[in-house]
Amino acid sequence: MITMNSKLYLDKLHACWLGKNIGGTLGAPFEGSRSCLNLEGFTSKKGEPIPNDDLDLQLIWLAAMEELGPGYLDANALSEYWLDWIPPHCNEYGIAKTNLRLGLLPPMSGEIDNEKWKTSNGAWIRSEIWAGLAPGVVDVAIKYAMADAMVDHGLSEGTYAEVFTVTLQSAAYVEKDIRKLLEIALSKIPTDSMIAKTVRMVMDCYDNGVSYKEAREKVVEFNSALGWFQAPNNLGFVTIGLLYGEGDFRKSVLYAVNCGDDTDCTAATVGATLGIIGGTGAIPQDWKDFIGDGIVTLFINGMYSGRIPKTCTELTERIAALVPAVMKENSIPFSLVEGEGNVCEDTIAEYDKIKAPELFNRSPYSYDITNYHAFNTRVELDKTPRVGSGDERHVTLTFFCNPKVAESRKLQMRLILPESWSVGPYDKTVSLLYAQPAHGLFGTASTSFTVTVGERMEIVNRVYVEVTCPTMPYPVLIPIVMIG
């Protein structure tokens, strides 16, 4: 059983949002700066936080969690909120929304036509809500952060980045040592990723007495091929803030923002992370007084504004109210308790078992179709879904039992094709056994086939796999989307 002091948790969560607002407001006027800055404090008007998407999108995810519940919140569900709630259509946001409207689900929605932006900053800037919903339980926090990031960043550096920050921030509820937190976060992303290499470079610079400005130049040079507003560069600057600031909130945030580039994002993430580590007492009083407790939004569809928290205090209370349901859904024995103390020992070790290879072991040309009661399905293509006449695509379907329904099923399949398209031999029946321990499988079954594109194509083409079963009252249609 994890027992976390409720007063301490609420203080850390509140400090997270205060730190987010402080850093975002401090850095926003200098966003895009390509040289080192010499900022010493705020340049904006007192008492008026500057809005930005770093926080706005997380307010939408809060509404999604409240409405859907933790059992139904996945990448596909978040995709609907993207289309309904989020007006901006720039960069990866716009590309993802265009792909979603074509029927390309995550992570494919974040991969197709997104080479320039899938490695950028849009995902890691919005990880705090998932950390707050799973404090100290990093694998659960990662589950929701992955669902979030894949929508507009696929399975690229942009998604690695949010896995990194959400791990850092979830673990920060029970661990204060920044070096340990960085190591835990690095264990969740591929060691050969640009983000991992950049963070390691900054750690080495700090250990070897290299100045923060020299470290900053090394980061910029190392990632020069990617350009600006990219995750590896800016997480390098976040790491500079966390290490060179040495736990001092003011110094850390200023180090991050003075590195330039996506200044509101880097400063906001450093501020939020140090807020979690040290609580409200770690934030300088004059900065708290300057920023206040209010939340100002800009990037949310106005028709939903009444469902958005207006203060950091309200945001804190609404997230905290969801924690018991999130933990129950994910089978985590967790309790917020009154009194002294923080958390039981070995929490991170017990709920920190998933490592990078397992997290990212799937094709970027894939997506999940969820049926929640009978089974879930993963669709994987061997190549991009963009096709021409005569092209072939090898398709693999993997069926997953609902772990809460201990029932084996015999699935009957029928393929429905666009006119003039064809399909090679395929299994008409697939046995989905609840458990096959002798084969090392537990509740999964796979089948594959090859689809050949015909002469007639539309912009959006759908092959449907109709699945029926004697124990299901209705057929399930699994769409395989290809773009002409």
Q: What would you note in describing this structure?
A:
With 484 residues, the chain is α+β, with helices and mostly antiparallel strands. It folds into 2 domains: 2-350, ADP-ribosylglycohydrolase fold; 365-483, Immunoglobulin-like, CATH 2.60.40.10. The protein is built from 18 helices and 11 strands. It has helices at 6-27, 53-68, 75-85, 91-101, 108-111, 128-133, 138-153, 157-171, 178-186, 194-207, 212-222, 231-244, 249-258, 263-278, 285-291, 312-329, 347-350, 356-359; strands at residues 2-5, 334-337, 366-370, 375-381, 392-401, 409-416, 422-423, 429-432, 444-452, 460-468, 476-483. α1 packs across α16, α11 (212-222) runs antiparallel to α12 (231-244) and α12 (231-244) packs antiparallel against α13. It is globular. The model has no long low-confidence stretch (mean pLDDT 93).
Number of domains: 2
* Annotated CATH architecture of the largest domain: Orthogonal Bundle
Mean pLDDT: 93
Strand order of the biggest β-sheet = 3-4-5-9-7
Q: How is the quaternary structure best described?
A: single chain
Q: Strand content of the residues, in percent?
A: 5-15%
What fold name stands as the CATH topology of the largest domain?
ADP-ribosylglycohydrolase fold
Order of helices and strands: EHHHHHHHHHHHHHHHHEHHEEEEEEEEE
- Rounded to the nearest angstrom, the distance between the terminal CA atoms is 53 Å
| Biggest sheet character | 5 strands, antiparallel
Helix-strand category: alpha+beta
- Identify low-pLDDT runs: none
Cα shape: globular
CATH class division of the largest domain: Mainly Alpha
Portion in helices:
40-55%
Q: How many β-strand runs?
A: 11
Annotated CATH homologous superfamily of the largest domain: ADP-ribosylation/Crystallin J1
- Radius of gyration in whole Å, from Cα? 23 Å
Q: How many helices? A: 18
